[in-house]
Sequence to fold (462 residues):
Amino acid sequence: MTAGPRFRRGRISWVAYGLLAFFAYLQAAPGLVLVHLRTELHLDYSTGGLHVAAFAVGSLGAGLASARIEQRLGRRVLLWTSTATMGAGAVGLATGPVAPVTIASVLVMGFGGGLLLVTVQAVLADRHGELRAVALAEANLAASGAYVVLIGVLTLTAAIGAGWRIAVLAGLAVPVLLWLTNRRLPVDAPPPARAAQGRLPGRFWIAAAMLLCTTAVEWCVTGWGASFVADAARVSADLGVTLMSGYFGGVLVGRAVGSGLARRLPPRRLLALALGSSAVGFAILWPSTSAAQAFAGLAVIGAGIGNLFPTGLAIAVALAPGRAVLASGRAVVVSSLAVLLAPLTVGALADATSLRAAFVVVPVLILLAAVGLLVLARLGSQPGRRPRPDAGDRRREGGMSDVLAQLRRWEDAGGQWHATLRADGSAVVALERCDLGETVGTITSGDPEVVAALRRRGSSAD
Fold:
């Protein structure tokens, strides 16, 4: 058996990492500046939460429309147009004088950011194939670094009296630099009909429900963490934002460790570890009454939360072979629903009781995500539903009848497959397990009849 494929980063991979970092910088901004907006605009918890909710609504619309927009514009144009749209929304947030303007601006940020997120995820999934989990883990590591940078810039601008608006606008330098140096870089995509059409398998939606829970956990803390710490530890708003560096630092460390573990552990095991760390962190954070304990709790829960989305996304996309854009778009829709509902739910509960009481939704969501993970594992372990590749080499050459017969046997055993057409006219078919989409074998062929057949039907989902 030959060694597995080697992970290689191309220029487009680095551009995708940089744009995801830009996305993360602005995505986290509304939650972090919310503590200032509530003071400046005299907002209650529920109205303040509308800023985070507006981002989610915009992302929700983007996720629903992303596949069709890509068909119309092409992936390269969509990549840079969505980046510009998100940047325009950030300018509106920083300059808006009243809540309706700032909320509408965040809505624009969410729509542009949602399109950008879908496109970056699809680029990495298509570029790296069966090693998509590694690429997504590295991309989200870059996003975590952006969170820490945002905290640092917010702290610096507060110290010198420049204000949070300068910190938000500073992030616009990243996409401008990337566009100037990469605007002619080709961004390849699979044929539109295969990427945007068809149904997603049932297991994808179980993974999507799990992703909804884990994203809600993340945004309960991201959206309200600074306010929770300021109230619980009785510190100023600026110090509450600074203490969130423990959370984002934890996310950064967690994703750095997770990026290495993604090369050795199956996604479901990595997700189980992340859920466990999140639960432990909450147990430290929730009863905290001092800044030190709150900082420690934020760091531990951040380490767990850092791996929830990238690992959950890798699991979900792997369950929809050959449909990276469609699966990524639906994943953004689901996660946007979580971003929409989680802050509003916590804000409404906080107005009715207290923010500490409202935070009890976090462990409930962690438990529900764990149940979803167990359901996926149980489905994958049912008798007769875990196919094995043929003995021998993982990479096999075959003619028309051989390849199609192997794929038929694989599907009959409950497995999944998807084909990648190469520029040299050959095709590579990845054979994946039925439960979490782990690639366990590949078939390669240069036979023109095989390639033509795989062009007509590119995956088991077609």
